[in-house]
Specification:
This protein is an all-alpha fold. Helices cover 89% and strands 0% of the residues.
Length: 368
């Protein structure tokens, strides 16, 4: 029992020595190179070689410093084989853990890099001005540098927003332009199908009754001729025929009159509806005037931004921190107003779009 307890203690000590040796050796080498991020095979082989060397050292230590109760040679060989059999899984464990840590570090570094790039997006200083700005930051104390950087990032944030609003304005304006053309065509074609159908009915009805009207006209001419020659028998016979046709002709004429009336009413309804829908569309005229005014304001805001940017560049060349910060705050204010003017234009374009949606709904509600 004492011998078995001593062997377990020795095995635990050997494992601790092996782990410590691995960590010490791997920590002294380049992280990316020896963990397989760039050369995976080299990193894995390196760890396995280290583990093999440590196992060999442990075997040598067993020979030089045998335990108080000597183990049999067969037991030592079995223990060595077990240790070598466990080597691949142990090496893979060490390799996988350190690889995961490396990936986390690289991902974090990438996130920080792209975040800093996004914060400063939208400001184009140029090479000379950028060097002057970097020089101002390097000369400033920690607190002043932080204040300058925050102001600079604020400018970049507003500039990014201005660019985003500009893209939204372009997309929405293009959509509104296309929709307006489509609505104008549909308004102009309001009830065209109905009117065409009614007009066709009138035409077909007239064609159907045309022989009746021709016969009735012929009978009346014959009656006039009989009266002219004063032939009473002929006149009586023709009058009887004319009297028979008269009510039928009246019904035919009434039928045509009704269909013509329906056609006229449909055309009148179309005129009224077109006028109403166009009046709704005309509601965007005032908004479009506001958009034109807002665009002029945006142009002025852009000009103020350009002037403020030039002042900021000049102040960085002079290198006075107070003036740089003052000009940077002025640039941030100008950029904010510029972005705000673009947002206002987008809001007005949305109002135009809402009006078009209303007209579209009104058209959809009409019976087909």
């Amino acid at each position: 029992m004492h011998t078995e307890a001593w062997k377990e203690t020795i095995n635990e000590q050997e494992a601790m020595v092996c782990c410590s040796s691995l960590l010490e050796r791997t920590s002294s080498h380049n992280f990316i190179e020896h963990h397989g991020l760039l050369e995976g095979t080299k990193g894995r082989k390196y760890i396995e070689d280290i583990a093999t060397e440590d196992i060999a050292l442990m075997e040598t230590s067993d020979i030089l410093f045998p335990p108080p109760i000597a183990a049999s040679h067969t037991h030592m060989m079995q223990q060595s084989n077990v240790q070598r059999g466990q080597l691949p899984s142990f090496a893979r464990l060490i390799f996988g853990t350190r690889l995961l840590i490396g990936l986390v570090i690289l991902f974090s570094a990438g996130t920080i890099y792209f975040a800093s790039t996004a914060e400063a997006a939208g400001i184009d200083l140029g090479v000379t001005a950028q060097k002057a700005w970097d020089s101002v930051l390097n000369k400033a104390d920690a607190q002043t540098k932080l204040t300058l950087q925050r102001a600079y990032e604020k400018v970049g944030s507003w500039k990014t927003q201005e660019q985003a609003w500009e893209q939204k304005i372009k997309a929405l304006h293009a959509t509104n332009t296309t929709e307006l053309e489509r609505l104008r065509v549909e308004i102009r074609q309001t009830d065209d199908a109905k009117i065409a159908a009614l007009a066709e009915k009138v035409k077909q009805t007239q064609a159907r009754y045309e022989p009746l009207f021709a016969l009735y006209s012929s009978v009346n001419r014959q009656l006039d001729a009989a009266k002219a020659i004063k032939n009473k028998e002929w006149s009586a016979a023709i009058r009887t025929q004319a009297d028979t046709l008269r009510p039928v002709v009246q019904l035919a004429r009434e039928d045509i009159r009704i269909k013509k009336k329906e056609l006229a009413e449909a055309r009148k309804r179309k005129t009224t509806e077109v006028k109403r829908l166009r009046a709704i569309l005309a509601g965007t005229d005032s908004v479009k005037k506001q958009i034109q005014t807002a665009k002029k304001q945006a142009s002025l805001a852009k000009e103020r931004y350009s002037n403020a940017l030039q002042q900021f560049k000049q102040s960085t060349k002079q290198g006075q921190t107070s003036r740089v910060l003052s000009s940077l705050n002025g640039l941030a204010s100008a950029t904010e107003k510029w972005a705000g003017s673009k947002q206002n234009i987008h809001t007005l374009e949305q109002k135009v779009s809402s009006t078009y949606v209303k007209v579209r709904q009104e058209i959809a509600k009409r019976p087909k």
